[in-house]
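Hello Y.,

Per our agreement to keep a running log of every chain we model this quarter, I'm adding this entry. I've kept the format consistent with earlier entries: sequence first, then predicted structure.
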Amino acid sequence: MSEQIADERFLASPVPAQVGGRAVRLIPHRTSDVEETLLPPDYQRILATVRQAAGRNMARQVGELLGVDVNVRAGLEPLRGKPVRLVDRGWLRKLPDGRFSTRL
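Predicted structure for the entry above:
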């Protein structure tokens, strides 16, 4: 069963990009040797926004702080997946109430 889960996770992971002839993930896992500056600019802005806001944030609040028109569904929906990717890679935490906060 665990082998099947590992295979499913591998297939669901994003296709690596080519940087300097090397395959890299666009959103690397957070480790002690990976700096925030390696994230794409949009993701760096999301991290900074969550960090600057008082308390925990929901995707709508992050979008407002980033200047995304949150009243238009097409503007907000792509933003919802980005904090989740940061959660999957260990950069943010998603709380049971759906809000995001920085990792300690």
